[in-house]
Amino acid sequence: MTTPTATGHRREHADGVYCEWTRTFRAPIEDVWAAVTEPQRLARWLGTWTGDPASGEVKFQMIFEGEMPPERFRIDECDAPRLLRVTTSMPYDGEEPEHWQLRLDLTEEGGVTTLVFAQNVPDPTMAESVGPGWDYYLDRLVAAETDRDPAAVNFDDYYPALSEHYRQEFGRA
User: Which residues form the Activator of Hsp90 ATPase homologue 1/2-like C-terminal domain (predicted)?
Assistant: First the structure.
């Protein structure tokens, strides 16, 4: 594995400040959509979900974070295979759950699909851990979709090594 690069950037959206990452795939948009939405494909690089998306929410379980409780993911908007907006609800030790907005936008041109993934960052201090974390997971996605072993992507190569980029990106340097 080569040394990872921080790829996320601060972006303003109508509903707040986000950190945004871009990945490209030589694959049809429907295939990339399946990689980020189908439970068995998602499980190769991030986690899995259960439930009925038509109900407006699913239970999401991170697979590579140790013993994490399942999270409620509310599906705010879905226009398959181009757009997905989700609000997470992450419980922490009986405290009020944290809510994060996730944005996935996909476009295809000339057989290349671009995924733009974003997470809201209401507190700039979040960026120094959220940033390296999503670089790690999105690199696992790329590995899974290019027939490489996602397990070869090592979180210790990302955090804390990439944190400084995100501190600077979010004005915390």
Answer: 26-143
* Contact (Cβ atoms closer than 8 angstroms) between residue 80 and residue 64: no
pLDDT tens column, 140-158: 999 999 999 999 999 999 9
Q: CA–CA distance from 154 to each of 1, 2, 45, 47, 101 (Å)?
A: 9, 11, 12, 16, 26
Q: How far apart are CA 32 and CA 12, in angstroms?
A: 25
DSSP state of 137: H
Token readout for 146 is 């290019």
Number of domains in the chain: 1
**Tokens of residue 96, six digits:** 């009020």
Domain span at 122: 9-169
CA nearest neighbour of 49 among 120, 102, 7, 111: 102
Residue 27 maps to a domain: yes
Considering the domain boundaries, does residue 1 fall inside one?
Answer: no
Rounded to an integer, what distance in angstroms lies between the CA atom of residue 121 and that of residue 11? 10
Assign residue 68 the CATH number of its domain. 3.30.530.20
Is residue 28 within 8 A of residue 113, CB to CB? The reply is: yes
pLDDT of residue 3: 86
| Res 92 pLDDT > 70 | no
Helices (H), 26-121: 29-37, 39-42
Q: Is residue 33 part of a domain?
A: yes
